[in-house]
Amino acid sequence: MASYIDDLRLAHMLADNADSITESRFKAQDLHVETKPDHTAVSDADRTTEQALRKLLATARREADEMRAAAQTEAESTITSAQRRAEEMVGSAEREAAHMAALPRQIAHAQQSSPAFASILAGVDAASITSRAALAQLPVTRKYQLHERQQAERAHNAFGGFASIGFGAAMPRVFASPGPIYEPEGARADYWRMARALYAAGFRAGELAHNCFSYHFVPAGSMMESGAHALGCTVFPGGTGQTEQQVQAMAELRPAGYIGTPSFLKLILEKAQAMGVALPSLTKALVSGEAFPPSLRDWLAQHGVAGYQCYATADLGLIAYETSAREGLVLDEGVIVEIVRPGTGDPVPEGEVGELVVTTLNTDYPLIRFGTGDLSAVLPGDCPTGRTNTRIKGWMGRADQTTKVRGMFVHPGQVAAITKRFPQVQRARLVVTGAMANDQMVLQVETTETAEGLALQLQDAVREVTKLRGEVQMVAPGSLPNDGKVIEDARSYE
């Protein structure tokens, strides 16, 4: 019925316009008649009317297409939300099977479509990488490698051969992280997969989200905006800074939630308090980009805002997100996450702190075993919200523990190279003490073998690998702290 009425209104509008054009030409006595090839007569009033009506029809058609597209987008966002919830609730074994089935396809795609991974994974049989054990045999790719390849190939490939798409319709935007390292944004809706984190933080379709992540250079603003759009939200692009204007916009637009760093939200709420402006509509927030300690979370709650955090990077998009359970972060469905011993690609036992290494299933930017440099650990069991994917403790610091000892750099990879020579060693930790210019190194190793010969061999290995002299201390298995550190800098810098 609605379509019939719309068509009837359009017909009346076309008829009225035709009458108006014809009448004006007759009244002006500006009428010329021609004979068409079929010997029928046509006036220039007829031609003018036809052109005008064609324009009106084109406009009407465009508006109808836009309305249909908007309706389709709304329907798709609803469907997508349902699909996301269904994905989050599947059995762990089913999810793992799906990921392992997708893994060889993604590796083959990376080899074929990414020149960088064609080189990094040269000789790898993609079809054989169907388990986590097989995945763990592949090399870890790190951020500095992205930077090095981009610099080396900048003249002909801005992304160093890692992206499988190029400039144009398939890549609406490109961003830059410090380095600079350039990251592509694909055309797919919710490219960074942030809608899942926003939904878990309480954002819903039909709400206004106040986005205070940067829209310049880095992808943070676009990451969150595209996720909010996929969820069906309207976005106010507040960006960074200008706290007084942020408060004014919030007071007048009444957003349901905030997106940005937690420290900037605190500044906005403090500014609102100082201005005597109430922000009753602001009841929730998705925060990221920095630490979100419980003290700040509690402070926001006291000011009426329930804050939830997510863990994402410019390279990988969403990795994990917090839920209402407040028990760790649930992994996103579009990534395969390993936790490895820093300086190596070797997975650690469940519960042990290590570096997050991520394989993304994004075909536009297919990063395989990408080392984040961030530390975390797996939490046992499922999330009380019913989400069945693996949970991690959240961000627990940086894995890059490179330090300078007596003018020489020592990094976790060197400690790993030492311990790999000795199967008797279970775990190791290099402790650096003393004051600057008077550094002392002690390699603490967990082992059941206490023979003096092993200690002397380890000392020789320390000197060979690091070019520095160090002591060796044998400790019982389980004695070293479970904090993910391979190098502990305990020196005084005062």
Verbal overview:
With 494 residues, the protein is of the alpha/beta class. It folds into three domains: 87 residues; 238 residues, Rossmann fold; 87 residues, GMP Synthetase, Chain A, domain 3 (2-Layer Sandwich), CATH 3.30.300.30. The chain is 38% helix and 21% strand. It is built from 13 helices and 23 strands. Strand 20 and strand 21 form a beta hairpin. Helix 1 packs antiparallel against helix 2 and helix 12 packs antiparallel against helix 13. It starts with a helix and ends in a 5-residue tail after the last strand.
Task: Please tell me the total number of domains.
Answer: 3
User: In the CATH hierarchy, what is the class of the largest domain?
Assistant: Alpha Beta
Oligomer: single chain
- Give the uncertain stretches in residue-range form: 1-5, 69-78
- Number of alpha- plus pi-helical segments: 13
Name the structural class: alpha/beta
Taken as a percent bin, the fraction of beta residues is 15-25%
Biggest sheet character? 9 strands, mixed
Report, as a whole number of angstroms, the end-to-end distance. Answer: 80 Å
According to DSSP, the number of beta strands is 23
**Bulk shape:** elongated
- The side-by-side strand order for the widest beta sheet comes to 7-6-8-9-10-11-12-17-16
At a glance:
With 494 residues, the chain is α/β, with parallel strands linked by helices. The protein contains 13 helices and 23 strands.
